[in-house]
Amino acid sequence: MINYHEPVYRPPAEANSIIIQVTLGCSYNKCSFCSMYETKTFQTRSLDEIFKDIDSMSIYSDERRVFLADGDALACDTSFLVEVLTYLKKSFPKLQRVSSYASPYNLLQKSQEELNLLREHGLSLVYYGIESGNHELLKYVNKPMNPDKMAEGLNKATKANMKISATLILGLGGKNLSKQHIEDSAKLINKCEHINYLSTLQLGLTSTKEDNFFKRFEKKNSEFIFCDDKDMLEEQRRLISLINPKKPIVFRSNHASNALPLKGTLPRNKEDLIGTLSLAIEDSSMLRPMFLRGF
Ligand SMILES: C[S@@+](CC[C@H](N)C(=O)[O-])C[C@H]1O[C@@H](n2cnc3c(N)ncnc32)[C@H](O)[C@@H]1O
Ligand code: SF4
User: Three-state DSSP class for 184?
Assistant: First the structure.
């Protein structure tokens, strides 16, 4: 069995996948809201260590899904990842899906040819944190990606025939930036060629992050006022009403941070999702109790 370097995070949809740590931590690690890898110094593990971990799991040779951890395995050199993917295929002959987290920086840094090559070797799904489509807000939270550049990176992954699972954070701009956060997020989603899965999470700050998070808003002369559950559900309802994708998107709010778990396909289930949200906005007994929420 593998001795993981804790903490290990994986998306909810990878609950039954084999997890292989290719890197430790996050190559960027500076987003003001994110404490996931704050205890780790980023490093790429050696091929030797990674192959040993794969060997120790090869008793499960019928496994079909592998998730490459930690925070952005796509930060590794393409040739290195190709070696890992090749070894995985040899060890798990029935392998159908290899996935990893990929930050906006990772996708921009890889050329179209590199993404094509990774896809050919089996990397078929990337989990990507959009967080917001509003450029100003992204600067406030120190993930200062230009939304047009994000669309460029995401479209490159689609062109390589990779699937994309993207996340947005409800409440990220607080009450004051809520309107532009949601409107620009919908615009970015609508601009992308194909986001296969879209999930929302609700903002939750750890005590280690709060001070710096608030200070960055104050520096821009903006006060951060937390959104409550009702505000976030209203954001979600507005978001869903504004999403008109080029190709169908499976929409989910199944992450444990959410007040209301939702699942549907956009645009087909738009009215149903909006209806459920409208009911929940008026009836808080429909919401997940606090003790069942988390990260
Ligand atoms: C490992 S990252 C995703 C992949 C990649 N590192 C990136 O940033 O695109 C995990 C995701 O968890 C979410 N997340 C992290 N901290 C959060 C917080 N404090 N509140 C809500 N969501 C958070 C963000 O959507 C973030 O993109
Ligand atoms: S959100 Fe992603 S890129 Fe930002 S610090 Fe967290 S893991 Fe790293």
Answer: helix
